[in-house]
Each structure stands twice: as C-alpha cells, then as structure tokens.
Amino acid sequence: MDDQQLAALKQMNTPGAGGEGQGAQDDGKREAEEQMRRDLLATVLDSAARERLARIALVSPARSRQIEGILLRMAQTGQLRGRVSEEQLIGLLEQAEEAQGSNTAKKGAIVYQRRQADPDDDWDFGL
Q1: Main-chain phi, psi angles of 62, to 5 degrees
Q2: For residue 54, what are the CA distances in angstroms to 27, 82, 120?
Q3: Among residues 2, 24, 30, 80, which one has the fewest Cβ atoms lying within 10 Å of its Cβ?
Q4: Rounded Cα gap, residues 6 and 11, in angstroms
Q5: What is the pLDDT of residue 57?
Q6: How far from chain centre, in Å, is Cα 60?
Q7: CA–CA gap between residue 71 and residue 82 (Å, rounded)
Q8: Are 11 and 18 contacting, i.e. CB atoms less than 8 angstroms apart?
Q9: What is the pTM of this model?
Q10: What residues of the chain score a pLDDT lower than 70?
C-alpha cells in the first residue's frame, strides 16, 4: 500500500472526519455514475428518441428511469444493434406498459350509475 491509500483508509476510519469525506466521495461517485449513464444513453439513442425520453422524464421520472434501465441492460448484453429510434422506443414503452399492466391490477374506470325513474314516485305532479 502506498502512502495515499493508507491516508485515505485512516481518514475513513477516523470518527468525525471520515463521515464528511465519505459523503463527498459518495456524491462524487454518484455524479460519475450518473454522467456515465447519460453518456451511454446518448450513444444508444438517436436524437428523436432522446428527446422523447426527456419529455417522459418530465412527466413521469419513475417511468423514464425504468426505460433507461431496460435500455442500458439491453446495451450491456448486446441485444441492441445500432441506435434506438423513436419508433423502437415507443414499442419498448408499449411493452413495458403491457408488462406493468399484467403485473398490477388495472385501474378501474369510474362508472356513473344514474338513478332510474321510480314508477311509484310521488314527485310526478302529473306533468
């Protein structure tokens, strides 16, 4: 071990000082991962698909993260050939919607039931 690595280990093990340094390291690591994720998505998606995914992120960040995760997994396993177009992204969104719909109970539509006129109603007044 060289002196720099030893000093970093001592700083992490020292109470008080290590917490602040660890938090900064975590933030830096998280920022680096996020930048790598954005770079990989930029290489995988064409411009129209990237714009659509950005609009989806504005409306539904969870859905956007889900689709990004799927795309990154597909890129890492070699399932993607070339760049993903907007039409392919729409197809992926539809597949994810179908899969999510089958896993969770579908939200029921609101059904309005109107009262039927009662033939014995006294409120007729002979009109």
Answers
A1: -65, -40
A2: 23, 20, 60
A3: 2
A4: 9
A5: 92
A6: 7
A7: 12
A8: yes
A9: 0.57
A10: 1-21, 102-108, 117-127
**Position 120, amino acid:** D
Question: Cβ(72)–Cβ(92) under 8 Å?
Answer: no
- Read off the tokens for 17: 């000082």
- Residue 25 is predicted with a pLDDT of 82
| Cα separation values, 84 from 27, 37, 42, 119, Å | 31, 16, 10, 63
Q: For residue 21, give both structure tokens.
A: 């340094």
19 forms beta bridges with: none
| Whole-number Cα distances in Å, 110 to 31, 46, 104 | 43, 39, 18
Return all residues near 47 (Cβ < 8 A) that are at least 6 apart. Answer: none
For residues 50 and 41, the answer to whether their CB atoms sit within 8 Å is yes
Q: Cα–Cα distance between 86 and 50 in angstroms, integer? A: 8
Quick check: 56 and 86 in contact, CB under 8 A?
no
